[in-house]
Structure formats: C-alpha cells, structure tokens
C-alpha cells in the first residue's frame, strides 16, 4: 500500500513544527554551552556556533526548506556539530567578542563624559558615528567569523567592509530585528523556545547575502 504524503495545511503544519523544533534545539544548545563556559567565556562561542550551524543551512545547495526540515537533524547530530565549532572557536571568538565589547563600552562612556563635561558637538557627532560603526560590526562579525578563515584583525576590517558594501542588507537586518521583536511580544512563548535563533536568523540571512554579493564582485573582477 502506497504511503500518502501530507498535503495542504497538514503539510505546512508539519514543516512549521520541524522548523520550530530545530529552533528549540538550537536554543537549548546555546543555553547549555553558554553555561558550560560559565556564561562569561561561553556566550560568544555559543553564539558563534549557533550562527555557524544556521549559516551552513542557509547556504546549502539543496534548498533552505529541505535543510531546516531534514529528519536527520537529530539532537546528537546538532550537538556534535555545535560542540566541534564551539571548541574550535572558543578562545579566538572570545577575544574578538570582548575586544568589540570593550570598544563599545569605551565609546558609550566617552559619549557620557562628553555630554556631561566637555560638551563638544563635533566630538559628540564623531563618537556617535564610531558607535554606529561598532554596532554595525556586531551585526556582521559572527557570520564573517563562521564563513571565513582570517587573521584576528581581518575579522574587524572585513565586517566593516562588507556591511558598507551592501548597506541595504544592513538596513534589512535592523528591520528584521524589529519584526522579530514584534513577533516575540505577540507570542511570548517563543522567548523561551527560540529567542536566540529568531534574532540570529535575519542577521545571518542578510549578512550572508552581503558576503555572497561581495564574493561575486571579487570573482568577476578576477576573471575580467
């Protein structure tokens, strides 16, 4: 007897369920490995590993939907993949993350000091521009780190170059982040089950397409 494939709303419900299950697994993996690094040393490697897993699937050649709903994405498979990149990236991504955090904190403190004591309009605008550049850097650095093998300082430079080269995608990340926030406010249960994957999805999707666009330009120039 031939097995009938689900159709219509049943099929879409099953697809949605598989995607939510993947998000739930990634959320728990992020939590487990963040606490494994005692939070302070675990949060950046856990984020980087989550980004890496999603980036691989977004960039797959056999279709995004097939990747996100693959029945082979068991807990053990995802855990093994997550753990491998977590251990591989542990010290370097912590250094990249905390250096970026130090720069962000320094700029925020400088803004507060200037506003309270120095009160220089030119310095204020300059600091705001630098802070915006650092915020944009945060939108790209994890995807850049997961996609390329670069020297330590090249990750900073490459993040800024790609974010500027395809600035419409940078704006799309911000819009996507706002939409995710609205979704989480509307359905609070998602905060517990898929907070991290949901926020990472627009960031990875659009930053990855910025990378692909820059790679295409470089490839065309090299063949010209």
Automatic annotation (TrEMBL):
Membrane-traversing stretches: 12-32, 38-54, 90-113, 125-146, 167-190
Alphabetically ordered keywords of this record:
Membrane, Transmembrane, Transmembrane helix
Keyword flag Ubl conjugation: no
The UniProt record lists the keyword RNA-binding: no
- Give the top-rank taxon of the lineage listed in the UniProt record for this protein: Bacteria
Which protein are we looking at?
A: DUF624 domain-containing protein
Q: What is the lineage of its organism?
A: Bacteria, Bacillati, Bacillota, Bacilli, Lactobacillales
